[in-house]
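Data availability (excerpt). All sequences and predicted C-alpha cell strings are deposited with the supplementary files. A representative entry, Membrane protein, is shown inline so that the format can be inspected without opening the archive.
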Amino acid sequence: MKTYREQHKPASEFANRSDYLNHELQIMKPKRFRLNFPGRDFRFEWEDLVPALAGTLGIVAMYSSVMMAWAEGLTSAWDHITLGKEFAIEVSRVEMIIPTILFVIFASGFFNPRANLAGNHGPMIPLIASIAIAGAHPLALAVLIGVFGLLLSVFKGGSRLVNLTSKGVAGGLLIFLGFTGALGQITTIQSWGKGLESSTVQLGSLGFLGLIILAVTVILYSFLARIDKRWLAIPACAVTALLIALIGGAGFDLQFTTQMGLPNLNPVHWWGSTDEGWMLGLPNSEHFIASLPFAILAVAMWSPDFLGHRIFQEMNYPKKTEKVLMDVDDTMSMCSLRQMVGTAVGGGNITSSWGTYMIPAAIAKRPIPAGAILLGVMVLGVAILGSPMDVAVWPPVRCIALLVGVFLPMIEAGVQMVKRSACAQAAGICIFTAMVTNPVLAWALAMFLDNNGLIGDKERANALSVRDKLIIPLSILAICITAILTVGMLHNTYGIQALF
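C-alpha cell line:
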C-alpha cells in the first residue's frame, strides 16, 4: 500500500483547489498513538490558517467566560473569596499554555491526529454558578470528569452512543443548541451596544452599533456561503465587526489591561494556599461529593457534542476519508487527560471537543493535525502577549466569532439532517424536550424513544439489539435524570428542589 508521501500530488495537477483538498483527505493515513511528521504524514496548507485563527478567537472567548463565571460564582458562594477579572485572565492564560503544548500541539498535532483538540464545554458555562453554590471544587470536578471520561473511552462507550443517536435526534439537538446559542450572542451584542455612551453623538448612545454589526454580519456570512467560502466566516466577520465598532466610536470601551509575559505556572500558587490563587485549598471528600453530579452531567453531554463535530466532517469531506475522521473515543481520552492536567496546574476550564476549530476545519476540508499545530502556536502567542486577549474577549469580536463560527453552522447542519419526515419527527421531539427541560435530557429521552420505534424511523429500531434499544438508552436516561434532580437544575423553572 502506498504511503501518503508517495500518493501526494501538487495542487497544479488538479482542476481546482477543492479537488486537491479532497485528494489530500483521501490519501492521508494518520498513525494512532505514534508520531506523525509534516511532509511524511500530512502537509500544511494555507486553508489551515482559518480554523487555527477561528479556534484561537473562540477559545480565548470561551476560556475567559468560564473563568469569569468561576470568579463570580465562588465570590458569591464563599465569604472569604473575592475573585475578579485579573484572576480570570491569569487562570485563562495558564489554561492556554501548558494544556496547549501537551494536548493540542503534541497530542492532536503529532501523536494522534484523529483525536480532535480538547477545548471548552460551552453548554456547561451557565451551570458554573450552580456548581460553585453547591459547594463543588474545580479540582475535584476535574478529577471526576477525567475518570468518568476515561472509563467511557476505554470501553468504547463514546462511539457506541454516537451510533445510537439517529440523524433526527442529532439534527434536533444541533438546531436547538445552535438557535439558543445564536440568540444568546445576539442578546449580548444588543446589550453591549445599548450600554455604550457617547458625548459626540446627538442620540446620547451608540446602541445602533449592535444592529449595524449584526446586519453586516448577516450580509457578509450570506455572501461567503454563496461563494462557498464559509470557512472564512470567523476571521472575516470578527475583523469586520471590530472595524465597525472602532469606526462607530466604541473604541473607548476596548481597554488593554493585560501585560505581556507568563502567568504563574506553579500549581502550589493556585491550589496550595487558601490566601492566594483560587483561595480554596485542596479538595476534600465533601468537595468530591458535591462535584459528582456535575461531573456525570458534563460527561453525559460529551457524546452529543462530539457527534455534532464529527457530523461536520462527514458532511464536508468526500467519500473514502474514514481514516481522517475524528475518532470519538480517542477524543474522549484526550479530553479526559487534558481536563485533569489542565486543572491540576491551576486552570479551571471544563473540557470538551474544540468546536470553534473543528467546524471551520471541516468546512475548509482540512484534517486535524496541521491546523492544530498552527492553532497551538497562535494560542501560546496570545497567552504570552496578553493584549490580544483583551481584543478577543471584546463583545463585538467574541460574540460574532461564536455566532458565525459555531451556532449558525450548527443550525444549518441540523436542518440538513432532518429532511425526511421521520427524522423531522424525532428532531421535533428532541427540540421540544430541550425547551421544556435541557439539551442533555432531551438527547437521552429522544434517543430512547427513537431507538424503540416510538418516534422516527421504525425500521431502524427493528435492526437494533435489546442492549442498544433498552439497556444503554435507559441507563443513560436514568443517569441524566438523577444528575439533573440531584443538582436542582429544574428548581428555577419548576420549583423542584435539589435532592443533594
